[in-house]
Amino acid sequence: MTGQTIAVIPGDGIGTEVISSARAVLDAVADRHAIELSYTAFDWSCERYVAEGAMMPDD
Questions:
Q1: E-strand spans in 13-52?
Q2: Cα–Cα distance between 55 and 43 in angstroms, integer?
Q3: N or C terminus of the chain with fewer C-beta within 10 Å?
């Protein structure tokens, strides 16, 4: 089984409600093709930009 890590950035220009559906599709494909997926979430959303003036940390 191969493995991949996917960056998840909710609210990067699409609605955050899309994330769970997109992950469900990816998980279904991964199961079918014996691919192990893991997800790393980043809070780099438009909401963060409005609140803090930056989408992501300096580092």
A1: 35-41
A2: 8
A3: C
Joined tokens for residue 58: 């300096």
Q: What is the pTM of this model?
A: 0.74
Q: Chain centroid to CA 54: how far?
A: 18
Q: Alpha carbon of 50 to those of 2, 9, 31, 33, 47: distances in Å? A: 38, 16, 38, 40, 5
Sheet strands (E) in 1-59: 2-8, 35-41
Give the other-Cβ count within 10 Å of 31's Cβ: 11
Tell me the pLDDT tens digit for each residue of 48-57: 888 888 888 8
